Protein backbone atom coordinates (compact mmCIF):
# COMPACT_ATOMS: atom_id res chain seq x y z
CA UNK A 1 0.00 0.00 0.00
CA UNK A 2 1.36 3.44 -0.92
CA UNK A 3 1.12 6.60 1.11
CA UNK A 4 -2.09 6.92 3.11
CA UNK A 5 -4.10 10.09 2.68
CA UNK A 6 -4.34 12.07 5.90
CA UNK A 7 -7.88 13.28 6.64
CA UNK A 8 -9.31 15.91 8.95
CA UNK A 9 -12.93 16.10 10.15
CA UNK A 10 -14.47 19.51 10.89
CA UNK A 11 -17.75 19.15 12.78
CA UNK A 12 -18.03 15.97 14.84
CA UNK A 13 -21.81 15.70 15.18
CA UNK A 14 -24.45 13.17 14.15
CA UNK A 15 -23.64 12.90 10.43
CA UNK A 16 -19.88 12.63 11.09
CA UNK A 17 -20.39 9.85 13.65
CA UNK A 18 -23.17 8.18 11.66
CA UNK A 19 -21.68 8.23 8.16
CA UNK A 20 -18.38 9.97 7.41
CA UNK A 21 -16.07 8.65 10.12
CA UNK A 22 -17.21 4.99 10.10
CA UNK A 23 -16.92 4.95 6.28
CA UNK A 24 -13.42 6.46 6.25
CA UNK A 25 -12.33 4.07 9.02
CA UNK A 26 -13.06 1.09 6.73
CA UNK A 27 -10.60 2.30 4.07
CA UNK A 28 -6.93 1.25 4.10
CA UNK A 29 -5.98 4.21 1.92
CA UNK A 30 -6.82 6.96 4.43
CA UNK A 31 -6.35 7.71 8.12
CA UNK A 32 -8.12 10.32 10.22
CA UNK A 33 -5.47 12.44 11.91
CA UNK A 34 -7.29 15.69 12.77
CA UNK A 35 -10.58 16.59 14.46
CA UNK A 36 -12.32 19.85 15.30
CA UNK A 37 -15.75 20.59 16.73
CA UNK A 38 -17.09 23.72 18.43
CA UNK A 39 -17.91 21.37 21.34
CA UNK A 40 -14.42 20.15 22.23
CA UNK A 41 -15.74 16.97 23.86
CA UNK A 42 -17.22 15.81 20.54
CA UNK A 43 -13.84 16.11 18.81
CA UNK A 44 -12.08 14.26 21.66
CA UNK A 45 -14.65 11.44 21.43
CA UNK A 46 -14.23 11.29 17.62
CA UNK A 47 -10.43 11.10 17.88
CA UNK A 48 -10.68 8.25 20.41
CA UNK A 49 -13.15 6.25 18.32
CA UNK A 50 -11.92 6.91 14.80
CA UNK A 51 -8.48 8.50 14.97
CA UNK A 52 -5.11 6.85 14.54
CA UNK A 53 -2.21 6.75 16.99
CA UNK A 54 -1.01 10.32 16.44
CA UNK A 55 -4.40 12.01 15.88
CA UNK A 56 -4.83 15.55 17.12
CA UNK A 57 -7.80 17.54 18.37
CA UNK A 58 -7.66 21.19 17.28
CA UNK A 59 -9.11 24.23 19.05
CA UNK A 60 -10.20 25.96 15.83
CA UNK A 61 -10.83 24.92 12.24
CA UNK A 62 -8.22 27.46 11.08
CA UNK A 63 -5.60 25.71 13.23
CA UNK A 64 -6.55 22.36 11.69
CA UNK A 65 -6.32 23.75 8.15
CA UNK A 66 -2.88 25.21 8.88
CA UNK A 67 -1.53 21.66 9.32
CA UNK A 68 0.23 21.04 5.99
CA UNK A 69 0.28 17.25 6.44
CA UNK A 70 -3.53 17.02 6.00
CA UNK A 71 -4.59 16.08 2.45
CA UNK A 72 -8.37 15.97 2.66
CA UNK A 73 -11.02 17.50 4.91
CA UNK A 74 -14.62 16.42 5.54
CA UNK A 75 -16.85 19.34 6.57
CA UNK A 76 -19.87 18.21 8.63
CA UNK A 77 -20.98 21.45 10.27
CA UNK A 78 -24.30 23.36 10.19
CA UNK A 79 -25.06 24.75 6.71
CA UNK A 80 -24.13 28.33 7.65
CA UNK A 81 -20.42 27.41 7.83
CA UNK A 82 -20.14 25.21 4.72
CA UNK A 83 -18.97 27.90 2.29
CA UNK A 84 -16.60 29.73 4.64
CA UNK A 85 -14.88 26.52 5.79
CA UNK A 86 -14.78 24.91 2.34
CA UNK A 87 -13.20 27.97 0.74
CA UNK A 88 -10.64 28.19 3.55
CA UNK A 89 -9.82 24.46 3.24
CA UNK A 90 -9.39 24.61 -0.55
CA UNK A 91 -7.16 27.67 -0.22
CA UNK A 92 -5.13 25.78 2.40
CA UNK A 93 -4.46 23.10 -0.24
CA UNK A 94 -6.93 20.44 0.95
CA UNK A 95 -9.41 18.39 -1.05
CA UNK A 96 -12.89 18.86 0.43
CA UNK A 97 -15.94 16.65 0.94
CA UNK A 98 -18.66 18.98 2.25
CA UNK A 99 -21.96 17.76 3.68
CA UNK A 100 -25.11 18.66 1.82
CA UNK A 101 -26.57 21.12 1.04
CA UNK A 102 -23.62 22.76 -0.63
CA UNK A 103 -24.29 26.20 0.89
CA UNK A 104 -26.96 28.55 2.22
CA UNK A 105 -27.34 30.28 -1.15
CA UNK A 106 -26.11 30.26 -4.75
CA UNK A 107 -23.61 33.10 -4.22
CA UNK A 108 -21.77 31.03 -1.61
CA UNK A 109 -22.02 27.88 -3.75
CA UNK A 110 -20.52 29.69 -6.75
CA UNK A 111 -17.63 30.91 -4.60
CA UNK A 112 -16.97 27.29 -3.58
CA UNK A 113 -16.93 26.17 -7.25
CA UNK A 114 -14.67 29.06 -8.27
CA UNK A 115 -12.23 28.37 -5.42
CA UNK A 116 -12.00 24.67 -6.32
CA UNK A 117 -11.24 25.62 -9.92
CA UNK A 118 -8.69 28.25 -8.87
CA UNK A 119 -6.83 26.00 -6.41
CA UNK A 120 -7.03 22.82 -8.51
CA UNK A 121 -8.25 20.90 -5.46
CA UNK A 122 -11.14 18.45 -5.59
CA UNK A 123 -14.49 19.40 -4.11
CA UNK A 124 -17.51 17.13 -3.72
CA UNK A 125 -20.82 17.41 -1.89
CA UNK A 126 -22.19 14.54 0.21
CA UNK A 127 -25.21 13.42 -1.81
CA UNK A 128 -24.94 9.80 -0.69
CA UNK A 129 -28.26 8.76 -2.23
CA UNK A 130 -26.56 8.65 -5.63
CA UNK A 131 -24.50 5.75 -4.28
CA UNK A 132 -27.44 3.49 -3.40
CA UNK A 133 -27.65 0.31 -5.44
CA UNK A 134 -31.04 1.26 -6.93
CA UNK A 135 -29.78 4.74 -7.89
CA UNK A 136 -26.64 3.43 -9.59
CA UNK A 137 -28.66 0.87 -11.55
CA UNK A 138 -31.24 3.46 -12.64
CA UNK A 139 -28.49 5.90 -13.66
CA UNK A 140 -27.11 3.26 -16.07
CA UNK A 141 -30.62 2.69 -17.45
CA UNK A 142 -31.03 6.46 -18.03
CA UNK A 143 -27.57 6.93 -19.53
CA UNK A 144 -28.14 4.01 -21.90
CA UNK A 145 -31.22 5.81 -23.22
CA UNK A 146 -33.78 3.20 -22.14
CA UNK A 147 -36.22 5.90 -21.00
CA UNK A 148 -35.62 8.10 -24.04
CA UNK A 149 -35.88 11.85 -23.44
CA UNK A 150 -36.93 12.41 -19.81
CA UNK A 151 -39.31 15.38 -19.93
CA UNK A 152 -41.27 15.01 -16.69
CA UNK A 153 -39.98 14.07 -13.25
CA UNK A 154 -40.91 14.26 -9.59
CA UNK A 155 -38.43 14.65 -6.76
CA UNK A 156 -39.88 13.17 -3.56
CA UNK A 157 -38.87 14.11 0.00
CA UNK A 158 -42.03 13.71 2.06
CA UNK A 159 -42.36 12.50 5.64
CA UNK A 160 -45.71 12.17 7.33
CA UNK A 161 -44.45 13.35 10.71
CA UNK A 162 -40.71 13.08 11.25
CA UNK A 163 -39.33 16.48 12.22
CA UNK A 164 -35.70 16.27 13.39
CA UNK A 165 -35.79 17.77 16.88
CA UNK A 166 -32.06 17.49 17.69
CA UNK A 167 -29.10 19.62 16.66
CA UNK A 168 -29.83 22.85 14.75
CA UNK A 169 -32.26 21.53 12.12
CA UNK A 170 -35.05 23.91 13.20
CA UNK A 171 -32.79 26.99 13.31
CA UNK A 172 -33.16 29.12 10.19
CA UNK A 173 -30.11 31.27 10.92
CA UNK A 174 -27.77 28.26 11.05
CA UNK A 175 -29.48 26.05 8.44
CA UNK A 176 -31.01 28.48 5.93
CA UNK A 177 -34.25 26.49 5.74
CA UNK A 178 -36.06 23.32 6.72
CA UNK A 179 -37.09 20.22 4.75
CA UNK A 180 -36.48 21.86 1.35
CA UNK A 181 -32.79 22.47 2.00
CA UNK A 182 -32.42 19.37 4.22
CA UNK A 183 -34.12 16.46 2.42
CA UNK A 184 -35.52 18.16 -0.70
CA UNK A 185 -31.92 18.76 -1.72
CA UNK A 186 -31.27 14.97 -1.91
CA UNK A 187 -34.38 14.28 -4.02
CA UNK A 188 -33.60 17.13 -6.41
CA UNK A 189 -29.96 16.10 -6.78
CA UNK A 190 -31.01 12.52 -7.60
CA UNK A 191 -33.56 13.73 -10.17
CA UNK A 192 -31.24 16.16 -12.01
CA UNK A 193 -28.50 13.52 -12.07
CA UNK A 194 -30.79 10.89 -13.62
CA UNK A 195 -32.02 13.38 -16.23
CA UNK A 196 -28.47 14.67 -16.75
CA UNK A 197 -30.08 18.09 -17.07
CA UNK A 198 -28.53 21.05 -15.24
CA UNK A 199 -30.08 23.92 -17.15
CA UNK A 200 -33.11 25.35 -15.30
CA UNK A 201 -35.14 28.09 -16.96
CA UNK A 202 -37.44 29.20 -14.13
CA UNK A 203 -38.92 27.98 -10.85
CA UNK A 204 -42.04 28.78 -8.85
CA UNK A 205 -42.69 27.55 -5.33
CA UNK A 206 -44.57 27.76 -2.08
CA UNK A 207 -43.16 27.39 1.42
CA UNK A 208 -45.42 26.59 4.40
CA UNK A 209 -45.29 27.07 8.18
CA UNK A 210 -48.55 25.20 8.85
CA UNK A 211 -47.77 22.65 11.56
CA UNK A 212 -44.60 24.09 13.12
CA UNK A 213 -46.52 26.16 15.70
CA UNK A 214 -48.23 23.15 17.28
CA UNK A 215 -47.46 22.09 20.82
CA UNK A 216 -47.19 18.39 21.76
CA UNK A 217 -47.60 17.33 18.14
CA UNK A 218 -47.26 13.65 17.22
CA UNK A 219 -43.76 13.20 15.80
CA UNK A 220 -41.34 10.30 15.25
CA UNK A 221 -38.70 11.94 17.49
CA UNK A 222 -41.08 13.41 20.06
CA UNK A 223 -42.83 16.80 19.99
CA UNK A 224 -40.92 19.82 18.72
CA UNK A 225 -40.65 23.16 20.48
CA UNK A 226 -42.76 25.65 18.44
CA UNK A 227 -40.60 28.55 19.72
CA UNK A 228 -37.49 27.03 18.17
CA UNK A 229 -39.13 25.87 14.90
CA UNK A 230 -38.09 28.86 12.75
CA UNK A 231 -37.84 27.02 9.38
CA UNK A 232 -40.65 25.85 7.08
CA UNK A 233 -42.36 22.50 7.66
CA UNK A 234 -43.17 21.97 3.94
CA UNK A 235 -42.09 23.38 0.58
CA UNK A 236 -43.14 22.58 -2.98
CA UNK A 237 -41.61 23.71 -6.24
CA UNK A 238 -42.29 23.55 -9.96
CA UNK A 239 -39.21 23.84 -12.18
CA UNK A 240 -39.13 24.28 -15.96
CA UNK A 241 -35.83 23.41 -17.62
CA UNK A 242 -34.43 25.18 -20.68
CA UNK A 243 -35.26 22.19 -22.89
CA UNK A 244 -38.90 22.32 -21.71
CA UNK A 245 -38.67 19.45 -19.20
CA UNK A 246 -40.70 19.78 -15.97
CA UNK A 247 -39.66 18.81 -12.44
CA UNK A 248 -42.02 18.87 -9.46
CA UNK A 249 -40.25 18.93 -6.10
CA UNK A 250 -42.13 18.02 -2.93
CA UNK A 251 -40.51 18.26 0.50
CA UNK A 252 -41.95 18.08 3.98
CA UNK A 253 -41.02 16.95 7.48
CA UNK A 254 -44.65 17.01 8.61
CA UNK A 255 -47.47 16.50 6.12
CA UNK A 256 -50.80 14.80 6.78
CA UNK A 257 -50.36 12.20 4.07
CA UNK A 258 -49.81 8.46 3.75
CA UNK A 259 -47.89 8.93 0.49
CA UNK A 260 -44.45 9.18 2.07
CA UNK A 261 -41.24 8.90 0.06
CA UNK A 262 -37.79 10.28 0.76
CA UNK A 263 -34.75 10.72 -1.50
CA UNK A 264 -36.65 9.15 -4.39
CA UNK A 265 -37.41 10.13 -7.96
CA UNK A 266 -40.08 9.37 -10.55
CA UNK A 267 -39.02 9.74 -14.19
CA UNK A 268 -41.13 9.83 -17.36
CA UNK A 269 -39.45 9.66 -20.75
CA UNK A 270 -40.44 9.18 -24.37
CA UNK A 271 -39.46 5.47 -24.33
CA UNK A 272 -40.24 4.47 -20.77
CA UNK A 273 -40.54 5.50 -17.15
CA UNK A 274 -39.14 4.57 -13.76
CA UNK A 275 -39.99 5.00 -10.11
CA UNK A 276 -38.65 3.95 -6.73
CA UNK A 277 -42.05 3.01 -5.22
CA UNK A 278 -41.33 -0.53 -4.04
CA UNK A 279 -37.72 -1.08 -4.89
CA UNK A 280 -37.14 -0.04 -8.48
CA UNK A 281 -39.74 -0.29 -11.26
CA UNK A 282 -39.25 0.35 -14.97
CA UNK A 283 -42.27 0.70 -17.25
CA UNK A 284 -42.65 0.90 -21.02
CA UNK A 285 -44.18 -0.69 -24.08
CA UNK A 286 -42.99 -3.56 -26.22
CA UNK A 287 -44.61 -4.91 -29.40
CA UNK A 288 -47.81 -2.96 -28.71
CA UNK A 289 -48.06 -4.11 -25.08
CA UNK A 290 -47.38 -2.23 -21.86
CA UNK A 291 -45.00 -3.76 -19.33
CA UNK A 292 -43.80 -3.09 -15.79
CA UNK A 293 -40.50 -4.58 -14.65
CA UNK A 294 -39.69 -4.90 -10.96
CA UNK A 295 -35.92 -4.85 -10.69
CA UNK A 296 -34.52 -7.12 -7.98
CA UNK A 297 -31.23 -5.64 -6.88
CA UNK A 298 -30.42 -8.59 -4.64
CA UNK A 299 -30.37 -11.08 -7.50
CA UNK A 300 -26.97 -12.29 -8.65
CA UNK A 301 -25.70 -10.17 -11.50
CA UNK A 302 -28.20 -7.34 -11.02
CA UNK A 303 -25.98 -5.51 -8.59
CA UNK A 304 -22.80 -5.38 -10.63
CA UNK A 305 -21.14 -2.85 -8.37
CA UNK A 306 -18.45 -4.51 -6.30
CA UNK A 307 -19.09 -5.20 -2.65
CA UNK A 308 -22.78 -6.01 -2.63
CA UNK A 309 -23.11 -5.33 1.09
CA UNK A 310 -21.51 -1.88 0.79
CA UNK A 311 -23.78 0.87 2.11
CA UNK A 312 -24.35 4.10 0.16
CA UNK A 313 -22.26 6.03 2.69
CA UNK A 314 -19.38 3.56 2.52
CA UNK A 315 -19.44 3.56 -1.29
CA UNK A 316 -19.52 7.37 -1.33
CA UNK A 317 -16.40 7.57 0.87
CA UNK A 318 -14.52 4.88 -1.07
CA UNK A 319 -15.15 6.43 -4.49
CA UNK A 320 -14.32 9.90 -3.13
CA UNK A 321 -10.94 8.79 -1.75
CA UNK A 322 -10.26 6.82 -4.97
CA UNK A 323 -10.91 9.93 -7.11
CA UNK A 324 -8.24 11.80 -5.10
CA UNK A 325 -5.71 8.96 -5.36
CA UNK A 326 -6.36 8.39 -9.08
CA UNK A 327 -6.84 12.09 -9.88
CA UNK A 328 -10.24 11.56 -11.53
CA UNK A 329 -13.47 13.56 -11.26
CA UNK A 330 -15.68 12.98 -8.21
CA UNK A 331 -19.09 11.36 -8.79
CA UNK A 332 -20.80 14.46 -7.35
CA UNK A 333 -19.34 17.46 -9.16
CA UNK A 334 -19.51 20.86 -7.43
CA UNK A 335 -21.07 22.46 -10.54
CA UNK A 336 -23.99 20.00 -10.27
CA UNK A 337 -24.51 20.73 -6.57
CA UNK A 338 -24.41 24.46 -7.41
CA UNK A 339 -27.45 24.05 -9.70
CA UNK A 340 -29.31 22.21 -6.92
CA UNK A 341 -28.61 25.19 -4.62
CA UNK A 342 -29.76 27.67 -7.29
CA UNK A 343 -33.09 25.87 -7.68
CA UNK A 344 -33.72 25.57 -3.91
CA UNK A 345 -32.94 29.27 -3.49
CA UNK A 346 -35.34 30.13 -6.35
CA UNK A 347 -38.19 28.17 -4.69
CA UNK A 348 -37.66 30.08 -1.41
CA UNK A 349 -37.50 33.38 -3.32
CA UNK A 350 -40.58 32.61 -5.41
CA UNK A 351 -42.53 31.85 -2.24
CA UNK A 352 -41.45 35.19 -0.74
CA UNK A 353 -42.27 37.28 -3.80
CA UNK A 354 -45.18 35.31 -5.27
CA UNK A 355 -43.44 35.38 -8.66
CA UNK A 356 -41.49 32.95 -10.82
CA UNK A 357 -37.69 33.20 -10.58
CA UNK A 358 -35.81 33.06 -13.87
CA UNK A 359 -32.22 31.82 -14.03
Word description of this protein:
This protein has helices at 14-25, 40-50, 61-65, 82-91, 106-119, 133-143, 172-175, 179-195, 312-326, 334-353, and strands at 5-10, 30-36, 56-57, 72-75, 95-99, 123-126, 150-158, 200-208, 234-241, 246-252, 261-269, 272-275, 280-286, 289-295, 357-358. The protein has a 9-stranded mixed sheet, covered by helices on one side. Strands 3-2-1-4-5-6 form a 6-stranded parallel sheet, with helices on both faces. It folds into 2 domains: 5-126, Rossmann fold (3-Layer(aba) Sandwich); 130-312 and 339-358, Dihydrodipicolinate Reductase, domain 2 (2-Layer Sandwich), CATH 3.30.360.10. It contains 10 helices and 15 strands. The longest helix is centred in the C-terminal third of the chain and has 20 residues, at 334-353. Helix 5 (106-119) runs antiparallel to helix 10, helix 6 (133-143) crosses helix 8 (179-195) and helix 8 (179-195) crosses helix 10. The termini are far apart. The protein has 359 residues and is of the alpha/beta class. The relative contact order is 0.16.
